[in-house]
Design brief:
Length: 445
């Protein structure tokens, strides 16, 4: 090897590490077989050894599918209440966004100047790949994501919400009032997530491309050495390399049942809180998720009856006044029509409510509680740090702010009854600290 060749190799490796560059357009094919069919078993070697998750045993079957529209109440009874995943085929096939967002030029013209959070995957020979977060203009991402090891994973920007439909199953009832966050995902080539879970329920909808899902019940967390995001978070991930399972070290994976589904444009999947899942994308892929907090009960007072008669009479009365009002009532809701706990603007995730009062703060605390009986200090501390964009040296500390609401500094949780009984004065003191965080640092690109 000449000195010049060696120097070029070193420089190329350095640039790959720093920039995550691939130099060539990535493989955009979407015809990858799934679930896998292992036909090359070698005697003495466990099935699926050093292969991706799913090769170690055959699936139990497909995730249950619904091909007809579900009412919010039926969705709750069949799936949310029972904690079962479900696929809703073609529920967004008529949505205009599925056609518009097929074109990068459309996204570049409409949203190109927005600051977005990008994940950069870096790979170096003989080292495990790792990822870093980076903020950049959306137009920069769109220009290079087919060549770079980049993918978009970000809370949906405020100005994007109007184009994204709210799934009909969340359009009324309890869960419309328990929406926590909407995220947008975009990538090219083959990408695969960690095996992970969320503390909230989520509905994941594909706008373009293909996504494969592997789903596993949460009782099998120990098989995958699951790690919580933080104590009492309700979410977590497996540190295992899901692209290369060591079947000798992890023999129980071959005994773990799993189900699967492949989603295409217009399809949505419901993933219950706590359910383990891995997501793989192929080609150009865009999707978004709507997360909503589990609740102890469900109410459907503002929903039409299953028969459709619940609001039919009201519509008939309105029809006599003209056609415009009934049409407005039938209008599909977008993410801009509902309130989330979190939003994204000025390059950062932030609380949607920027002027909290005791009543609205109490509501947020109950959302953090989900369907549990105790709000742990760790949950509140994480929430408070997120609300302050993880600033260093917060004064007072998040722990001290939590204890503004507790009977004494030794307490590490608040019960549901205690949250409901918190005085206006105590809540107001926390509101003032959260409302102070208004100025945001501008992105440097």
């Amino acid at each position: 090897m000449t000195r010049f060749t060696f120097a070029a190799l070193v420089l190329g490796t350095y640039l790959l590490y720093v920039d995550g560059k691939t130099s060539f357009i990535k493989d955009m094919k979407t015809d990858v077989p799934f679930p896998p069919v292992n036909t090359q078993n070698v005697p003495g070697i466990p099935e699926g050894h050093l292969r991706p998750l799913g090769w170690q045993r055959k699936p139990e079957g497909k995730v249950r599918e619904e091909k007809d529209a579900l009412s919010p109440s039926t969705f709750y009874i069949r799936y949310v209440k029972t904690g079962r995943p479900a696929v809703m085929r073609g529920v967004l096939k008529e949505a205009a966004v599925t056609e518009k967002w097929e074109e990068d030029n459309y996204l570049k013209e409409k949203y190109g100047m927005l600051n977005m959070t990008i994940t950069v995957k870096k790979e170096v020979m003989n080292r495990d790949p790792h990822t870093t977060k980076r903020r950049m203009l959306f137009r920069k991402f769109l220009m290079d994501y087919k060549y770079e090891n980049w993918y978009l994973t970000s809370t949906v920007h405020e100005v994007m919400r109007k184009e994204l439909p709210l799934p009909d199953v969340l359009s009324c009832g309890t869960y419309r009032d328990r929406l926590t966050e909407a995220e947008v995902w975009m990538s090219s080539g083959g990408t695969a997530s960690l095996l992970h879970s969320h503390g909230d329920h989520n509905v994941h909808c594909v706008l373009d491309g293909r996504k494969d899902f592997i789903l596993i019940e949460d009782q099998y967390q120990s098989v995958f050495n699951f790690e919580p995001t933080y104590p009492n978070s309700g979410s977590g991930h497996s540190p295992m390399d899901m692209d290369m399972i060591n079947a000798y070290k992890n023999p129980k994976i071959a005994e773990t049942p799993w189900v699967w589904s492949t989603l295409w444009q217009g399809d949505c999947i419901f993933v219950p809180a706590g359910y383990l899942h891995q997501v793989r994308a192929f080609g150009r892929s865009i999707s978004y998720t709507v997360q909503f907090a589990p609740s102890v009960a469900y109410e459907s007072l503002d929903c039409p009856d299953e028969s459709g008669s619940g609001k039919r009479k009201k519509k008939e009365k309105k029809a006599s006044k003209g056609d415009a009002e009934p049409e407005a009532e039938n209008k599909k809701l977008s993410l801009a029509d509902v309130e989330f706990m979190w939003t994204y603007s000025d390059g950062e995730m932030r609380l949607s409510d920027r002027a909290l009062v005791p009543r609205s703060l109490r509501r947020l605390l109950l959302l953090l509680l989900r369907d549990g009986d105790q709000l742990h200090r760790d949950q509140f501390v994480h929430f408070y740090e997120d609300a302050h964009a993880h600033e260093a040296n917060l004064t007072p500390t998040p722990d001290e702010v939590f204890h503004l609401m507790t009977p004494n500094n030794a307490r590490v949780h608040l019960s549901r009854d205690e949250i409901l009984a918190l005085s206006e004065n105590r809540l107001q003191s926390v509101c003032e600290l959260l409302n102070k965080k208004e100025a945001r640092v501008k992105d440097e690109l």
